[in-house]
Specification:
The chain is mostly helical. The protein folds into two domains: 54 residues, Arc Repressor Mutant, subunit A (Orthogonal Bundle); 151 residues, Tetracycline Repressor, domain 2. It has nine helices and no strands. Helix 8 packs antiparallel against helix 9.
Length: 209
């Protein structure tokens, strides 16, 4: 391995170290209370080192969300290409996939939802903002294709597939936000699948022909 390749690998390792620390601190303190100094302390680095990799706290926060979006997009593509007897079963596969993503890291998923509805997006560099927008739109496009197949096959009601996709994403994010608020209030760490099952069952009944 040459010097250039080794430096690139070391830089990526350092970046991963910072992101790992940021994930822990953001999860513990929330975005508002977290400082770059807190993250540097957790990563056992100087604050100046963090600024060599991330322009500010907003960019670091957004980078964690990009990771979630990339993971989500890959999982969605697998759901879409997987053989399924009918669109309803594909939606069930989609529900299970979304729940699995939620179980992997609930707090970072919450960060993603907060990011999408906050002013932080307006403070990001154009390249980062474009990445987030593209990943979000591409993921929703896959969900839209699933609904389009169901509408075309007369399995789902004749509503615009994009509207159905938006409603499903809103349903998912709403259940996650509510479940996490209950976990914080009740000081519990386990996730509850019943709320997801009930929400998706009602949704599927509502769009079935």
């Amino acid at each position: 391995m040459g010097i250039h390749e080794r430096k690139l690998r070391e830089r990526e390792q350092r970046r991963r170290q910072i992101l790992k620390a940021a994930r822990k601190v953001f999860s513990s303190n929330g975005f508002t209370k977290t400082t770059m100094e807190d993250i540097a302390r957790e990563a056992e680095l100087s604050p100046g080192t963090l600024y060599l990799y991330f322009k500010n706290k907003d960019e670091l926060y957004a980078s964690l969300s990009v990771e979630v979006l990339e993971h989500l997009h890959e999982k969605l593509k697998r759901v879409y290409i997987k053989e399924a007897p009918n669109p309803q079963l594909r939606i069930n596969d989609l529900k299970q996939m979304l729940y699995n993503v939620y179980q992997v890291d609930p707090l970072i998923l919450l960060n993603l939802f907060h990011l999408q509805s906050s002013e932080i997006l307006t403070h990001l560099e154009p390249a980062m903002l474009t990445t987030i927008r593209n990943l979000s739109s591409n993921s929703l496009a896959i969900i839209t294709k699933i609904f389009a197949e169901g509408v075309n096959d007369h399995v789902f009601i004749e509503k615009h597939p994009k509207a159905l996709s938006d409603v499903l994403w809103g349903l998912f994010s709403g259940v996650v936000l509510w479940e996490e608020s209950k976990r914080i209030i009740n000081n519990k760490r386990e996730t509850n699948a019943s709320a997801f099952d009930t929400a998706f069952e009602i949704f599927l009944r509502g769009i079935a022909r």
